[in-house]
Write a structure and sequence with these properties.
With about 150 residues, this protein is an alpha+beta fold. It contains 4 helices and 6 strands, in the order H-E-E-H-E-H-E-H-E-E. The chain has helices at about 15-25, 45-60, 80-95, 115-125, and strands at about 25-30, 40-45, 70-75, 100-105, 130-140, 145-150. A 4-stranded mixed sheet has the order 3-4-6-5, covered by helices on one side. Strands 1-2 form a two-stranded antiparallel ribbon. Helix 3 links the parallel strand 3 and strand 4. The longest helix is centred in the middle third of the chain and has 17 residues, at about 45-60. The chain starts with 13 loop residues before the first helix and ends with a strand.
Length: about 150
């Protein structure tokens, strides 16, 4: 048993430990039930639960969630339009988010899938130093999808 000041008291019968806790006005809490003999501590259980709740809330607050941002491209994109999309991709990756690049084909563009693949290779080469490819370019119907994540 450990008393309210954090000092070891040794092996104490349960009844005596409960009486000692009552004298101080605190609770007897079983800290390690699987130990032989079980370890108990005299403490304010309500205060202990409150502190544990605060620790969990703090850990949750400091947690960073990774979002999946999407950038949509077309195979015949102009250079300035590409640069704007590239700036957005860079901003998303620097914020720590994953980026899903969707390349959509319409009509006769489906006959020239190689142009789209070259565009995705260009994106991959442009962001090779700050991002890695999670999912390689994969065709799904009329679109090709690639996912980049921060290094």
């Amino acid at each position: 048993m450990i008393d309210h000041e954090g000092e070891k008291q040794g092996i104490v019968p349960t009844r005596d430990a409960i009486e000692m806790a009552a004298e101080v006005g605190l609770d007897l809490v079983e800290v390690s039930p699987n130990a032989e003999p079980p370890v108990c501590k005299i403490m304010d259980y309500g205060k202990y639960k409150y502190q544990m709740q605060k620790k969990k809330a703090e850990a949750r607050k400091n947690q960073k969630t990774v979002d999946l941002k999407e950038i949509k491209l077309r195979p015949n994109i102009d250079t300035h339009d590409y640069e704007v999309k590239a700036r957005n991709i860079k901003k998303f990756i620097e914020e720590g988010n994953k980026v899903k690049i969707t390349l959509r084909f319409r009509g006769r563009e489906m006959a020239h899938m190689d142009i789209g693949m070259k565009l995705l290779e260009r994106v991959q080469a442009d962001f090779d130093e700050i991002a890695k490819v999670d999912h390689k370019p994969k065709a799904e119907g009329r679109q090709v999808i690639m996912i980049l994540s921060p290094r």
